Amino acid sequence: MNDKPPAKGSQRASSDHSGYGAQHLPAHSVALRSSTKAEDYGPAAALYGIEDLYSKREELNRQIKLEEEEKERLQHDIQILSEKLSKVEKSLAQRLAARATFDRTIGETEAAYTKILESSQSLLSVLKQEAGNLSRATEPRRKDH
């Protein structure tokens, strides 16, 4: 049986690593999977270790790809949300300015109304006073005998 790994560049070119996998290892090396010391069993155990590393690397690559896709989606969402936030901030600023204008106009109108009301009351008071004076001036005088 041949326990040597394949020569560099021979059957290991494919990404599925089936070129020299478990199906090509000697039958006695199946028990090596539970071994923790590759040197106890020679090159066959080392091949299992290498295959295990390739398998773990491929799983890591799959996870990396998923996270990169999620990162891209999140960045896209952030861009969309940033644009929406910008629009809302602009609209809010315009509405706040409009409210401030309303507040100022209301304040000025109330102040003017108060002045008009005070003037009207003052004018009414003057009119009543003058009406009383005129009434007294036009009444026939009584003679007290």
Description of the molecule:
- The chain has 145 residues and is an all-alpha fold.
- The protein has one domain.
- The protein is built from one helix and no strands.
- It has one helix at 43-138.
- The protein is rod-shaped, with a radius of gyration of 49 Å.
In short:
This protein is mainly α and 145 residues long.
Relevant terms:
single chain, 145 residues, mainly alpha, 66% helix, SSNA1_fam, Sjogren syndrome nuclear autoantigen 1, coiled coil
Q: What is the distance, rounded to the nearest whole angstrom, between the alpha carbons of the first and last residues?
A: 161 Å
- Supply the number of helical segments: 1
Major pleated sheet: none
Write down the secondary-structure element order.
H
Strand content of the residues, in percent? under 5%
Query: From the structure provided, what is the oligomeric state, counting identical versus distinct chains?
Result: single chain
Arithmetic mean of pLDDT: 80
The total beta strand count reads: 0
The number of distinct structural domains comes to: 1
Shape: rod-shaped
Poorly predicted ranges = 1-35
Helical proportion, percent range: 55-70%
Structural class: mainly alpha
Question: What radius of gyration results from the CA coordinates?
Answer: 49 Å
List the helices and strands and how they pair.
Layout lengths: L42 H96 L7
